[in-house]
Amino acid sequence: MSQEILAVYPGSFDPPTNGHLDIITRSTRLFCKIIVAVTDNCNKKHTFCLDERLQLLCESTKALKNVEILPFSGLLVNYLEQINSFVVIRGLRVLSDFEYEFQMALMNRKLNKKIETVFLIPDQSYTFLSSSMVKEIAMLGGDMSGLVPKCVAKELKNKYQKNEYTK
Ligand code: COA
Fold it and tell me: Is residue 39 a contact partner of residue 69, using CB atoms and an 8 Å limit?
């Protein structure tokens, strides 16, 4: 049954990390197709513009056949309805993620009772990762190996060498 389900993994991915990729890869084993839905309308000020985030995700997931990278704006529940999906994938790294994720899952269900949120736990080696942290490491010239895909590490270097830090 779940093999036929289209699932959506939403997020800002600013930039995508190996932790995000770990969740995407795990999702591809559970669902027939995964749409990685990249938001551009949340309150966050992005370091990478929407096109850059889409491009980096496409490059990082090119080996995965059942993954599509698409932008979305507005309410997530409306987007899900539009593409005929009712499953949201979210990663749970540490206990402190839980409260926010729980709230978001229940709010999405309140907005549309058909929506189910599936939580996946990333590999232990990624539980400490976040996009802000990798940006700080890049800005301060630290080693990004193992934290982000190669294309992301390259873009982070380009950005910070050109002093484009905006967040
Ligand atoms: N590995 C590494 N980092 C991870 C991760 C993982 N597996 N999972 C989450 N993160 C990090 C991200 O890097 C990010 O770090 P940062 O804060 O340093 O940038 C942080 O966790 C949260 O990012 P993300 O998972 O992308 O969530 P988000 O808060 O940016 O986005 C949306 C949440 C997009 C799903 C939510 O805001 C949304 O649905 N927006 C649409 C509007 C809407 O419907 N609102 C009502 C929702 S109830």
Answer: no
Exposure letters 76-106 (e unless 16+ CB within 10 A, then b): bbebbeeeebbbbbbbbbeeeeeeebeeebe
Other Cβ atoms less than 10 A from the Cβ of 66: the count is 14
Q: What is the mean pLDDT of residues 71-97?
A: 94
Quick one: which atom of ligand 1 is closest to the CA of 74? 42
Domains and CATH numbers, the chain: 6-127 (3.40.50.620)
Q: Model-level pTM greater than 0.90?
A: yes
Q: Which residues pair with 35 in a beta bridge?
A: 8, 68
State the catalytic residues: 20, 44, 93, 131
Hey, what are 136's tokens? Answer: 């700080």
| Amino acid in the structure at residue 3 | Q
